[in-house]
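Two folds, back to back.
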Amino acid sequence: MTTATHLSSQLAVNVLDARSLLSAFGVLGVGVVLFAETGLLIGFFLPGDSLLFTAGLLCAGTAGGSLKLSLAPLLVAAAVGALAGSQCGYLLGRRAGGTLLARSRSARLHQGARRAHELLERYGYAKAIVLARFVPVVRTVLNPMAGALRVPVRTFTVWQVTSGLVWSLGLTLAGYALGSSVPNVDRYLLPIVAVIVALSLIPLASEVYRSHRDAKTKETRR
């Protein structure tokens, strides 16, 4: 009976809710979700940012009642999932090109693909790969897009690993640090996650602003 109840709770998991995912699958779920979000187009809707931050809070013993995760295994799972997912997405893009994206009917996914393409063309490979890692949906579609556009393997791997480690470990450790220093921080989890998502858009917004400013400067000089 206990086993059946536990299995039922896992099957009823809400994939859009970080706490629900962590309660059902723990550390392993973090790796799987990050792999799907960064490596498979069908995972574009998964909550990567909030999942990492909430998992960090759980390692500090907050935001989850009796549920507590171990920090070291979590960091390993987060890094492996994020890095392996991105590399997988890139390889799929090189082999399948735009076929997978063309079959999707998701307007949000296609919008993310356009933004990813713009990033690669406007900022160059290295900067685009780093910026995309911190933008939901864009980090999902940029990897196969980079593969389809034949971004050099070495260039893609170096920058996706660099940005992937900063993103996955940084958000996890930020959650852990906040959970360790602020009592009852779980009460403010939703506003905190909203702030994190907003902050993740700052690099992209900053680059767009600079691009528009430079374009206006060139027009003025003409």
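---
second:
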Amino acid sequence: MSATRQLDAPEVERLTRRGLRLAQLTVAYNVVEGAVAITLGLLAGLVSVVGFGIDSGIESVAAVLVGLRLAARLRHGEPDERKERTTLRLVAATFFLLAGYVTFEGVRSLVRAEAPETSAPAVVLLVASIVVMPVLAAAKRRVGLALGDNLVLADAAETRICVLLSISTLAGVVLHQLTGAAWLDPVAAFVIAAFAVHEGREAWEGELVHDQHGDHGHGHHDDADARVGVPGEPG
């Protein structure tokens, strides 16, 4: 581990269990959020909201990965580096699939000049995500920094991306409702695709967390270790 101070075994176990609970909460929240978003998006013809729902599923996969690793650490110790990196590449592949899907649907919507319906429930869902996800991301980040754990920090980064996606999707939906411009929703979908490609590339390279500066003064000591890897791996 690359923690900033030596933690005793009970403290490490306490933080690891907290990280596991946060991962489980992420899965539970995102499964519900994703199902609701996809349903609302399909009903209203909102491509970006459907893409947002699929992204919730992807974030759930990442949280499952982290949860499994933390649970394995509690039971047996160090996680399996080879399995971890293989799974991270599978997660990266799902990001690329997401980017391809929303890009295709966005282009199709633009070509057909399809006007999505307004959806107040979708707006409420996106606002809820903007409120909940930053709190969850901050809690994960505190645990990750305390443990010096790159996987937990990566999961926190995934959740922060979900916040950005919520904001971009909400902007597209609200601006469409205010202006009636049908092209705004596909543009929001393209923003999601861009985020997905970026995060997919970072996941594939094992570097989801690449800059720890600027978070209340904690990040300066983690730069050299801000890569997705096995806790305990030399920094």
